[in-house]
Specification:
binds zinc ion; Peptide Deformylase; alpha+beta; 3 helices; single chain; 184 residues; two-stranded antiparallel sheet; globular; 28% strand
Amino acid sequence: MAIREILIYPDDGLREVARAVEFPLTGEVRALIQDMADTMYDAPGVGLAATQLGMPLRIAITDTDWRSGEVRHEDGSEPVAARNLKVWINPEFTWRDEGVVACEEGCLSVPEIYEDVDRPAAVRLRWQDMEGETHEADFEGFLAVALQHEFDHLDGILFIDKLSRLKQSMIKKKMKKRKKLQNS
Ligand SMILES: [Zn+2]
């Protein structure tokens, strides 16, 4: 169990295209997935891709329930363990809805920035679980948005790439300033 450092934009590591995961999972990859969960819940966030930890493997996790629902605190500080942790390995969209929804997105790698992004409202996804078994299912709503956001990370794409050039340069400036402040 360990919390790892999340890469912050404009870190080059966030631009890496992740490679496919092979089965059976090695102990190292299992440890990475555990650390991804620890890191996501600690942040706190509702999704995290391995690339955000500087590990370019096609793995992402989500738990879109635990913050929107009631988060119980057992001792007043630590959130209770996973509500609905999902692990997505080698994910691939096999269909995207033509209908688009705008949803406000944020990202642990782009702190304090929240912007509306247009994305297909529903998707069909094929992925593997931790045993290497393949699944396929349709998703819509917030989870569909979260999955598209997370899997973009695996191709080195950030949600801010989908904004206007002007907004992107403003965000870049803001993030560089933030880094300066933290280093001083
Ligand atoms: Zn993100």
